[in-house]
Every structure is written in structure tokens, then in C-alpha cells.
Specification:
Distance between the termini: 104 Å
Low-confidence stretches: 250-255, 303-309, 339-347, 662-672
Number of strands: 6
Structural class: alpha+beta
Helix content: 55-70%
Order of helices and strands: HHHHHEEEEEEHHHHHHHHHHHHHH
Largest sheet: 6 strands, antiparallel
Amino acid sequence: MFKIVDRFVLKTFLPLFAMSFSVCWFIVVMQFLWRYVDELVGKGLGVFVLCKIIFYAAMSFIPMSLPLGILLASLMTFGNLGERLELLALKASGIPLYRIMRPLFLLIGVMSVLLFQFQNDWMIQAQVRMWTLVLSAKYAAPEMEITEGVFYTGIPGYSLYAQHRDPSGRMEQLMVYDMSRGYLNPRIIRADSGRLVMDKSKTFLVLKLYNGQSYENLRAQSYNTSEEPIPYMLPRFTYSETFIAHNTNINYQDEKQLGGLYISKNLSQLNYSIDSTARLLDSARAVITDGIDRDLLSTHYQSFAYGITDTATFIKQREELTALTQRIQEAKPHEKANGDSLLILSSATDSLRVIQAAVSTLERTKNQASFAKDEDDNSFYYFRTYSQEWHRKFTASVACLIFFLIGAPLGAIVRRGGIGMPVIVSIFFFVVYYTIESFGDNMLRSETIPVWLGMWLSNLVLLPVGLFLTYKSNQDSSSLNAEAYVMLFRKLFGYRGVRNVEYQEVSIEEVDYKQATLDLGTLLEQTETLRTSPLFQSPIIRVWSNGSDQAKLRDLSTALDDLVESLRHSTSRLLVSKLKDLPLLPKHFSPLLPEQSKYGWIMSFMLPYSVPMTLYFSRLRKHLLADLETTKRTLLALQEEVVAIQKGTWEKENQSDETNPIYANQLQPNLS
């Protein structure tokens, strides 16, 4: 039974999911259209046919856009809940984060099951129909397929080449090979320019040529071994038209022609195809390996009287071949000269004959191995393709759950609603996911890793990330606080923020301005001493040996904090506001700089480490010098203000004494 919290979370998530999924789906479909726009536009396709192609393409790209939509929607949902402090209110009421995520996890689990069913059934029909329409439209208007500098053979019996082609369809420097009467009787045409246009009946193509010359035999050849010369003619023309019978109406391809491809198979059909190709692959590799080994052994024994299946003889011949090779390598020069070696031949003629026979055998074996490799690559291609498609029906469904485990905790951590931050994070993880997936595909193509590992590699990499983020967000761990890392990097680069001092309307204790004057004078001396110390004035390369001056920086920082704490109770608004101008000085120059000079000198000679650290110290010292200058100016301003307050307090006390009646009677002369 769904409770109020479940209904609230689902009500927040579903509109965002509908919006994010629609946007991601639209982007993926538009990418398909941009890729195939040249093959679809200008082919005489009706609006209804184009809409069918777009619809089937949209159905085919649901598995790609659904995980991204879930990631973006979960980020936005929990980001909005965190930004509006609703997530904090739910946690404060005792509801943990995993309980808040539970209804969405169940919903996305149902989506994953439906996505698997969609991929295994409905998407197959959509893909088959989409590619049938695309392939049918591809050959509907061949004049649109001609590319500059490439021979076009899409018209049966003709081969066209155009060096340049205008967007309007005008071609320049044309070469036409007319093979409609056979390859032995070609007609070759060269023209300065021309066009290939469609007849109104859409049953002919008209090749219009300008300023050219043709070559044609006057007598047909029956075979190409005749030595008798054949007469030919080379007529020139200013304008020529050639009608080519070619039906340019859209002839829809039969959907059964794509039945053997992986896109038209469901899970059970893929299992059958994988088993068939695996058996064929294993048997072919076993037979080819034994055949090549037999040929290599027969080269040494000059005959092969035993069958391949005779394992004992095969092993014995292997051992004899190994022993013979070792004996030849260990033979001494005088043994070879005396003819003791088994490979010493009686004459140079015999040696040449044996070498030629060996070279011929090796060439034959090499060609046989090359042919076998091509056959093996072809068989493995089908096995890999079927296996990839089998695993892909599961990986997309599991990716939906993994992306939710990443998006929901990140939204709770970032606590940023809207579109900006969620879109950036979603694109980052989406790019990482498909980059790892592409890497796995490339690895399994070369048989470096198994097919299952290549297909599940991206899920296996991102699943621990999602589990880690979910665990840490449920524990409210500070290690995932983004603001803490931002402050850390700011401190590393010298930014420490501003001092926050608030004016108090009611002051309990009175400020000792006399002591404050003495403290300000002491702080000015400490600031000047530190500013002129070797740590800040010596060459930057010697900063490693002046780490002991960090104690002065620590003392000054502590004294400034004490001064602010004592003066923040002042009734003067101007004085309290000037305290905000005092920089926040660190307790030490850098934790990476040792305070003892001998250790600093040792670290300065570690060149791979000391060079970038010296540059970092230079930047840090520049910021600290600027802070010390600001500290000096602020202390002087505070000193003037404290003196003015002291003077004003003294005058006020004197005025109050003069107006006191007792004090006034004492000042009057005793007239009696």
C-alpha cells in the first residue's frame, strides 16, 4: 500500500520523467535523421512514408534514451526536494533516504521489465520495418547517390564517375562505362558536363551529356583471347542523350530479406543462432588447426601416411621434430663440414631443389592459413553479433536501475533543482557509460575479452559507483559534501573567505581600549616583522629553508583572532565594521612546507616533486603578502579609531563631571 510519502515522491518524479525522457528521446531521433537525411530527402517519398520511418526509428531508440531520461529525472527530483528543504523535513521526521527512494526504485524496476519485453518483441518489428523502408528509399533515386570522385555502380550495367557535382545535380568531367552489352563489349563515354535526370513516368533515367567523345567497338566480341584486331569508332558529340531502363518508383523490400540479421531475432532465436555459430566456429578451428599442422609435418617427412586422428603418431612426430631442431642448433661446424648432420645434402642442386620445395610449401600453407583466417573472422563476426544482441537485451534494462542509483543520491547530495546542474551531471555519466561500452565493443572485436564482459563492462564499472553513492547518502556522510571540497580547493589556492563580525546591540562587558591600543601596536610590529621575514622576502627557491618562519604567521593569526574577539563587543559600529576588513590568516604557510630547514632542503632536491610545489608556494606567498599589507592598513585604521574613541570617552567623562552639582560646588570659592 502506498503511503502519503510514496504518492508525494511519485507525483514529483513522474512529470519530470515525462519531460526529461521526451527531450532525450527527441535528441536521439534527430541524430538519426541528421545521419540519414541525405538518403531520405529528394527520393520521392511521401509524407506518410517519412512519418513511418521516423516513427519506427523513434521506437528503436527507446532503449538508448530511457536510461538517460531516468538519470536526469531522478537528479532533478531529489535536487528539487533538497533545494526546497522537503528532503530535510522528511529525514527529520525519521524517514531514511532509502525509504524515500523505494517507490521510485520499484517503478523503475517495472520500467526495466517492460523495456526488456519491448526489446524482445515490439522493437524487433519496428527495426525490421524501419530498415526495410530506409533500404527501399536508398535506391529510389540513384541520381542523388552519386558522389564526387567515386565510381557509382548503383545502376545495373553502368558505372559513372564525376569529378565535380553541384547541389543542383550538374556534374563535370564525367566518365561513363556502359556494360549493358557485356564486359567484353563496353561503351566508354567522356564528357565535359552532364546530368542524370528522372523521366516523368519514373521508369527511365535520362543521361544528358555535353561536349564529349565515346568509344565503342564496331563488332561484338565473343571471348577475350582472340588476337584479331577489332574495329572501333570514336565519335564526338556536342549533346547526347542516353535512356536507361530503370524503375525509380519505390519498390519496397521484402521484410523476410532481413530475417537472417540479428535485428530480427528475439531471445530464443538468438540462443539458437549462437549455439549454431559456436559449434561451427569450434569445429572449423579444430579442423583447420589439424590440417595446417599436418601440412607442416609433411614438409619435414616428405609424406604423411597417418591420419589426423592418430594422436600417438602425431605426438611422436612432434617429439622427433623438436629433437631434430635441437640437434641442428647444437651441431658443431666440423660436424657439418664432415657431413655428419642430417640436413647436409650431396650437392648444391639438391639443396636448391629442397629449398624451392620448402618455399612453395610455405607459400601454400600461408595462403591456406590466410583463407582460413578470413573464414574464421566471418564466423566469429556472426557469433559476436548474435551474442552482443543477446546481452544488449538485458544491459539496457539493468542500466536503468544503475542510473537511478546514481541520480537519486547525487540529487540528494547536490541539492540543486532546475535543469542546469542535473543536465551537466547526466551528460557526464552518460558519456562515461557509452565510452566504456564502446571500449568494451572494441576489446571483444579483437577477442581480447569475452563477449559477456565486453557488453557488461559499463554496467560493472558504474554499479559500484551507484551503490557507493546510495550508501553514503543514506549515512549522511560529510565526505560527499560538495561545499567542503570547494572550500578545500579555495584554501589550497589561497582563498580563505572574509571575516564575519556582527555588531551587538547590547554589550555585557566593556572594551578595554587602553589594552587594545597596546595590542594594536604589538600586532603592527608582528605584521611588519613577518612581512619582512626571509619567508616572504627571500628568493622563491629559498622558501624551502625558511619554514621556521611559519611560527610567526601562526602567532600573528592567533593574536588577530584574540583582538577581534575583544573588540567585537564595542559600542562603536564603525570599529566593528572595520574588524571585518582584517583578513583570515592561516595558521601555517602550507602543510607541505616543513618547519625544519634541513628537511626543507632535502625536499627541494626532489625535482619531480619540488618544481610544481615551488610554483605553488610562489602563488601562495603572493596572496599572503597581499593579506599582510591589508592587515597592516586595517590595524592602522583600527588604531586611529580606538584613539578617537578613547579621546571621546575622556571628554565625555570630563563634561559629565563639570555638570555634576557636587563637583560644581567644590569649584566655587568659599566666600565665608
